[in-house]
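re the bet — no i am not wrong, look at it urself. input seq straight from the record:
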Amino acid sequence: MHFKHLTKDSIIFSDKTEKQHIIREMVSKLEEAGRIKNSMRYYAQVIHRESLENTGIGNSFAIPHARTESVDELSMLFCVAKNGIDYDSYDGKPVRFLLLSIFPSSYSTTYLYYISMMATIFSDDSIISRLENAQDANEIYTILEEQSGFYFDKISEQEREEVDHSANLAGVPSAELDLLIRLDRLYKMNGSMQCEIIMEKITNLEHLIDNRSLTYYKRMQQKCATPFAFVEKQACSGCHMNIPPIELNAIKERKNISLCSNCGRFLLYV
């Protein structure tokens, strides 16, 4: 599976019917699994994050999370709410699926990339229906594993040939990737919901992004199913071409935006 931080053991079913109760249960499960300590501390952080901005992103899916320097890596837990949760989501639908994430700042880009993938998966009603009918964690995991594979394989030979390599993004800090991935997720959400709130967020976010990287992202968005790829076994997950060692070292350092020299996608080291 393309989630390094989500396993079959990290998938649970819950009978809880209230938002606070199900989030508390999820955080407790992470503590029981030895992923975090003092679950109430992180529960408070997740709930505080929810008070700032509701994470029900629509299509029955929510992404409660907390970014904190008191953990060393990204921890995730996927929950199926059997009875649905009133979450005040953008589209007004009850939430049936939640992905809880607790992570340090160094994993922000990784987290956002995973969330972008999940938002794409949950934009397909047929996949949501399959998940709703799943009977156990193994079946949920199988569906997510299958769909994550499809997500990363969405590239054709024609797309590779059409990619424009003329962009000069030298010196653009890697932090811009966080903003671009957020923007990509909002575009996907808006495509399925056409929500004024999301459109406002898109406009505000575009004003924060370096114009060179924003322009290049929009060009790539028109040419590729997904403008982002990650480094997998020293190769680009988008076009599967090997990455030269000198470029690989630059990507690992995470100082500036890196592009695949073959397909042109934004490269992430996760």
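see?? The longest strand covers residues 75-85. told u. also The CA atoms of residues 11 and 78 lie 5 Å apart. so pay up
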